[in-house]
Amino acid sequence: MTAVQRLTSTVALLAVLAALLAVPARTARAATLLSLGRPATASSTESAAFPAAAAVDGDTGTRWSSAFSDPQWVRIDLGESKSISQVVLNWETAYATAFQIQVSGNGSDWTTVYSTTAGTGGTQTLDVTGSGRYIRMYGTARATGYGYSLWEFSVYGGDGTEPPPPGDTPISAFKKVSASSWEGGNAPAAALDGRTTTRWSSEFSDDQWLRVDLGGTAAVTGVTLVWEAAYATGYRIEMSDDGTSWTTIYSTTTGKGGTEKLGITGRGRYIRFTGTKRATGYGYSMWEFQVFGSVDSSSSTPPLLSPPTKAPGTTGQFALSAPADHAMVTDTRRPVLSWAGVPGTAHYEVWINVSRTDYDFTAPGRLLDLYTKVAETSGTSYTPSWDIGDRWTYRWFVVAVSGSGARTTSDIRTFSVYLPEIETVDDGVNVVGGARDLNKNGSIEPYEDWRRPVEDRVADLLGRMTTEEKAYQMFYNAQAYARSGWHFGPAQPDDLHNVLRSAAGTRLGIPPVSAGDTIAGYETTYPLQSALAAARDYPLDYKLGDMQRREELEVGARGVLGPLAEVGTKVLYPRIQEGNGENAQVAAAQVRALVAGLQGGPELNPGSVLATVKHWPGEGAGGEAGITFDAVTIKYHMIPWRAALDAGAVNIMPGYAGSSYLDPGGPGAGNSAPILRYLRDELGYTGLITTDWLPSSAWVSAANAGSDVMGGADPGAAGFSMADFIAQVPIARIDDAVTRVLRLKFKLGIFDRPYGDPVNGPYRFHQPSYAALANQAARESITVLKNDGVLPVKLKEGDDIVVAGPRAADGAACCIWTSYFHANYGSLTLLDAIKARAAKAGVTVHQDSAPSPDLAVVAVGEPSYTHRTAWVNEQPYLPPDQLALIRQFHDQGVPVVVVMDLPRPTVITDWNGLADAIVMTYRGGEEVGPATASLLFGDYAPRGRLPWQLPRGVEQILEPGGTDRPEDAVEDWNIPYDLGATAAERAEIRARIDAGQPPPTGYGDPLYPYGAGLQGW
Predict the structure, then answer these.
(1) Could you report the average pLDDT of every consecutive run of 10 residues in the chain (1017 residues)?
(2) What ranges in 577-718 are assigned the alpha helix state H?
(3) Quick one: which of 73, 87, 77 has its CA closest to 157?
């Protein structure tokens, strides 16, 4: 369509003005134009002359025009979630007859707030109700043969002055907080945690204050003070942009205590309560300090104008100017990006590999190599609209788009951004020249200077260390040996803080990393990876890892001994419960998501928790006694390991098992040079290698084999001498290992910010949003294998349910290792959860027995275990007492729902026909009880799928009378989907693996196949 065929600019101007003036008077109070100048993107453009940005630029002579096809969309990023009341579409002649207006909080999940199939074009003023950060027009039918063409897409919303409706979450909840003082355990953060049993209490004097960092510029619409008996009669509420200069927005000398709801307004990042007069002889004591309003997050959130995208195949067609390649930016979070101009360019696109939460975790390739379009500009420079976070490998390029749509791509450059907030703690370390004087000599050495590149700091520190100081960095037990590089956690927050302070007192002040077996959450416990493999919700996996990261950072813990990159192809491997099921592609996606979530992005950075991916080279094939894959099947088991490296993993733990293929007759992986060489040579791994917990007699050989850190190793172990270790491990090997340790620590930023907040951090554990994530993960994983019409529960008021079985009141069965069942935070056993849910329906729940129950829920399965199964390993089936319980209710004619925890593939053939419904919950985390109860009562539909095949009988696993050894195995320990498989089927599986193709999941003759599970009711 040519310009001649278009409306003239004059007509367009009149139309736009008319549209702006036509906003109804009834919305005048809230008629704030939200869309003007905001970042916009589109499914397509007719040419570079009609970009998406033209629809929000307020220029009446410019427009967006799409390609000539359906569907097409144009999307606006409002910067933060906004309440939207009206949309005005000013169409050019190429309008939509059918379209939707949709809103989204994340740019991925959309809610329709307006829809029509009878669009009339012209100027359409649409009253809508909705909220979200993103809004789009989604066109499905065009009125002409051309595309969709909008002069303006105007979005109006509330002005932010309305008080929040009752029950809205305060913007102050769980935010960073400080206070002039606190009394005993009544920490400042207790006033922000939403719990009625915790409070902040000050010292017994006036002029005490509580200050909250709202995390961004906030428009405050109200404050609620919930007082304990020691309240304030005189106080003021103040706000500040910088935490230094304060403006009073409310003041009183007649405070009444109780609950005070203040309809006050103000603007700033910080808000402070200052008490000037106490009502009692005690201090000021608040159960809750609640601030309402909205927070502008646009200053910390990059515009996401594209999906994560690989760079074009052809680059280097014009030059970037600044920052210099590999520049380290230490003076601004908004560095100016500039490039050489390209003649004939209509506009430029700026692409950066910003951290995202919505990667396609199923796709192979490094996450660092995925870019996002963050801007379109007509000039040859761009200043980011957000504060770029600390990261070591930002890559960027620019695309020049000509008037005809031709695209030319610049070279690709790298820069880093690092501006730490230097901590001042009473640890004997002073701040000199803006940096921590770790060696306490009054000047800043290169390793202490955060403005220097990581490699410079590593080299300088390594050169200052004695051989003994170096060797200690390869060991654990920092709680007893302050020079040790590692601490085995988790510890109580105060204890960990003291460990970190002790390290600061050493000659060079090198901080340790605290890491522990918190493989399913630090405090809030989510399902094990085998359960997550039943859900296959990889964005949720990322959120779970990110949740764990946030909880650890609260108190200064910076590592975890997980996740596992294992594919469980051996039924009798006890730790199959910790792995990812038997599908290597599912395992790969989960590992990518969990590692990225723990890191908070595609690489280790100063906001990361260090993931320790284990157990190399994959104990799911054979188990801890020995790995049995061969030249073909190793390819299958390497898939999740390659995914871990794609996600940026930099610490790998070899397991106890050796490998008959990689090192025939050799030792366990941590002591095997060939097994570790395969990791470095074949996978290209350059990061840290941390052994599993080995005896002290194995530490020297492990170090000489190539292991860098001795997992759990105590330098004071009986019979061990650090001098002997140094004498037997070459200094070149020690330097190699310690270089990796120091590099990792500098990248974590712990030399500059080694501490968490042991006082306030614990109050930010187990937030309601975290419990909701754990609950969602449990819901999505729970698998219904069978339902003969008894689910969802169809009982009426007054009916009776009996809940029986050894797992009914067993909270510990949800979890393993250092994971928690939080009764103090409301975690419920299955019995208590069913009682709570049934009470809402008027149904009575009995434990173990009832005179004439209408339904029996029998909770069975294996108790919690770690290295060794709770039952005899070669007997993966219900013990007689549990089987008898199912049979008892069945024989009484009572409908039976069997709920089983299923930590590993188990034979259920002997009772499969006795149960009217079978529900598998795996190790479902601390929310598995409520999640299961909700499922039984039909609050949601099932969606979980088995992560393994279930055998028909032990004969599909072992020869009669056999034990867990290769010569007695019936299944092939190294391949998936082979229970009951023929030799020909196994050959096909191997051929698929050898060819790099995912094997189909339907092989063999299991009782229930891989992926079984009812999808809905």
Answers:
(1) 36 37 34 84 88 87 88 90 89 91 84 88 88 90 90 78 52 97 96 94 97 96 96 98 97 96 96 98 98 91 94 98 98 98 97 96 98 96 96 98 96 98 93 97 98 98 98 98 98 97 98 97 97 98 98 98 98 98 98 98 98 98 97 98 98 98 98 98 98 98 98 97 98 98 98 97 96 97 98 95 98 92 86 96 96 97 96 97 98 98 98 98 97 98 98 98 97 98 98 98 98 97
(2) 584-599, 634-646, 673-683, 699-705
(3) 87
C-alpha torsion 943→947→951→957, nearest 10: -170
Rounded Cα gap, residues 649 and 601, in angstroms: 11
Q: Are strands 40-42 and 72-91 parallel, antiparallel or unpaired?
A: antiparallel
The C-alpha atoms of residue 20 and residue 91 are separated, in whole angstroms, by 13
The single-letter DSSP state of residue 141 is E
Pick the closest to residue 346 from 33, 4, 62, 699 (CA basis).
62
Residue among 636, 591, 606, 645 at smallest CA distance from 618: 636
Q: At what angle do helices 928-936 and 768-781 cross, to 10 degrees?
A: 50
Q: How many residues does the chain have?
A: 1017
CA gap 507, 827 in Å, rounded: 45
CB 314 within 8 A of CB 361: no
Tell if the pTM clears 0.85, that is, is over it: yes
Residue 897 burial by CB count (10 A; 0-12/13-18/19+): exposed, middle or buried?
Answer: buried
User: Using CA atoms, how far apart are residues 241 and 214, in angstroms rounded to an integer?
Assistant: 10
Query: How many Å apart are CA 829 and CA 819, to the nearest integer?
Result: 15
Q: Which residues contact 636 (CB under 8 A, 6 or more apart)?
A: 567, 569, 584, 629, 974, 975, 976, 993
At 652, list the tokens: 């790998």
Are the CB atoms for 202 and 283 separated by under 8 Å? yes
* Residue indicated by tokens 């019979």: 719
